[in-house]
Amino acid sequence: MSESLYVVKIGGNVIDNPEACARFLKDFSELTASRILVHGGGKVATQMASRLQIETQMVDGRRITDKAMLDVVTMVYGGLVNKNLVAQLQASACNAIGLTGADGGIIRSVKRPVKTIDYGFVGDIEAVNDFQINALLSSKLVPVIAPITYSNEGLLLNTNADTMASATAVAMAKSAEVKLIYCFEKKGVLSNPEDDASVIPLLTPETYASYKSTGAINKGMIPKLDNAFAALEQGVAQVIICHADDLKQAVSGSAGTTLQLK
Amino acid sequence: MSESLYVVKIGGNVIDNPEACARFLKDFSELTASRILVHGGGKVATQMASRLQIETQMVDGRRITDKAMLDVVTMVYGGLVNKNLVAQLQASACNAIGLTGADGGIIRSVKRPVKTIDYGFVGDIEAVNDFQINALLSSKLVPVIAPITYSNEGLLLNTNADTMASATAVAMAKSAEVKLIYCFEKKGVLSNPEDDASVIPLLTPETYASYKSTGAINKGMIPKLDNAFAALEQGVAQVIICHADDLKQAVSGSAGTTLQLK
Q1: Do residues A142 and A89 touch, judged by C-beta distance below 8 A?
Q2: What distance in Å separates residue A118's CA from the closest CA in chain B?
Q3: How big is chain A by its Cα radius of gyration, in Å?
Q4: Would you say the pTM of this structure is higher than 0.90?
Q5: Do A177 and A4 form a contact (C-beta atoms < 8 A)?
Q6: pLDDT of residue A59
Q7: Is the separation of the CB atoms in B260 and B202 below 8 Å?
Q8: A132 vs A3, residue with greater confidence
Q9: CATH of the domain at B156
Q10: Over residues A133-160, mean pLDDT
Q11: Beta bridge partners of A158
Q12: pLDDT by residue (tens digit) across B82-122?
């Protein structure tokens, strides 16, 4: 466990709001540790699909990525969103390099097998190339990763950005002390969903179990937190859940919710 | 002058033809030297603009890149085209990494100043970061560069792919023996434009002057060849002009037209 590394995920709500995004990027560019940014897509892909008259396919309430939608996602996430984030970071003297999982072969996946639902061009992550990512970090580059992976067959595959962030954090934990930071629209994990001031500063498996048993942490957050604790069990040092405006305070432990094994 | 480096440019005619593109990528993936691919855009951006009902702005017969068209170019060249090339190369065990000029700050430009025509979001190259490109090549990565650069202000800018290829070749010539290879739809520079078999195998400044004086090399080719000789004068070892199907033969000198200072 040598150097410290931040793996930061920002969601679509930040991407969709230019002012919030600019504030976030400024804070991100001012961090001094090695860092990786993983971004979601936001509404731009859905809007673009609608302008191109590509219908969003739904099966049993789940969105399907057909070839036309894959092209939209590749254009919007891998091109428009990713390159604008990179150019803005470069203008703030942060040496960003925009990547999908295909670039440098950093995140490889397999097309999701068809069971009851055919999700189409969706990837389930198989391997994160931490060696290649470390080579980029050693060149003082800051990877900015779009939610697209690739398969051995040369397919591009739509992939969940939260999962890409946690898989990357777990792989990098072999060689660095990794903090995985999820930035979203709330101040952290709340003990009372109605009260934005009720941020829980620290969650361990024990306190998490207790908040679940009282119902204070409810179903929406449970899969997210289960995944976060799974990342900790696989070697990630800390998971932090915070508001996108609070990145700098959150990495120093003075904002958001920190999850640790003990 | 140490290692040998190929800077290969493919144009839109290859991008637009999936079979030709797959053949080219297979050959490119089998080269063993360090190499960089620079790609043009092809018709996809124009088609996408038309589907999005974005009008192509023309002033005095020149295409203008307004903000809507810049977004299309960023999506299509930086996303759709670039990432599909990368995924196909990865499937052929070529460790491609897709980049615009903004990524790693490799190619910076300035927004073209308005004189008689405002070209909009078009970049004139100011600096190629050969140090950063060398760092990627040292990691055994194969840069695949889309025709987009960035400015100090964080703008993305549409940029001519031929110019990006020659500027990259010139910058890399400081540290490598560079062959700059333009792949297009002809077998090479022809002494008789009506006869595809009339490829001129070798052009020096002297023979070029003589072909020009007889009119055998005519206006369409002259600016391209002038630019190629300018690259040679700035340190590039050879420029090769060949058919996209002949890449492997061309690098060994048995196809296409080779340009050298002597």
Answers
A1: yes
A2: 22
A3: 18
A4: yes
A5: yes
A6: 81
A7: yes
A8: A132
A9: 3.40.1160.10
A10: 97
A11: A122, A148
A12: 999 999 999 999 999 999 999 999 999 999 999 989 999 99
Query: Closest Cα to residue A36, out of A171, A160, A158, A155?
Result: A171
B/e letters for B1-26, b = 16+ CB within 10 Å, e = fewer, are: eeeebbbbbbbbbbbbeeebbeebbe
pLDDT of residue B2: 61
CB atoms within 10 A of CB A233: 11
Is B178:B240 a contact under the CB 8 Å cutoff? no
- Average of pLDDT values for B26-36? 97
Report the alpha-carbon distance of residue B151 to residue B159 in Å, rounded.
11
Q: Quote the domain boundaries for residue B192.
A: 4-259
Q: Which amino acid is at B12?
A: G
Inside any domain, residue A64: yes
> For residue A52, how many other CB atoms are within 10 A of its CB?
15
Residue B52 and residue B75: Cα distance in Å, rounded?
12
Q: Which residues pair with B144 in a beta bridge?
A: B37, B98
Asked if residue A251 belongs to a domain, the reply is no
Query: Would you say residue A205 lies in a domain?
Result: no
3-state secondary structure of B237: coil
Provide CB contacts within 8 A for B129, sequence distance 6+: B104, B105, B106, B107, B108, B171
Domain membership flag for residue A221: no
Q: Report the C-alpha gap between A218 and A220 in whole angstroms.
A: 6
Report how far residue B9's alpha carbon sits from residue B250's, in angstroms, rounded to the nearest whole number: 13
> Is B100's CB within 8 Å of A78's CB?
no
The Cα B160–Cα B154 span in angstroms is: 19
Chain B residues whose beta carbon lies within 8 Å of the beta carbon of residue A156: 83-84, 87
Residues of A with CB under 8 A from a CB of B: 48, 51-52, 71, 74-80, 82-84, 86-88, 90-92, 95-100, 102-105, 132, 135-136, 139, 141, 148, 150, 152-156
- The answer to whether A189 and B120 are in contact (CB under 8 A) is no
Considering chain A, what is the average pLDDT of its residues?
94
How many domains are there within chain B? Answer: 1
CA A245, CA A240: separation in Å to the nearest integer? Answer: 13
Closest CA to A54 of A29, A72, A40, A36: A72
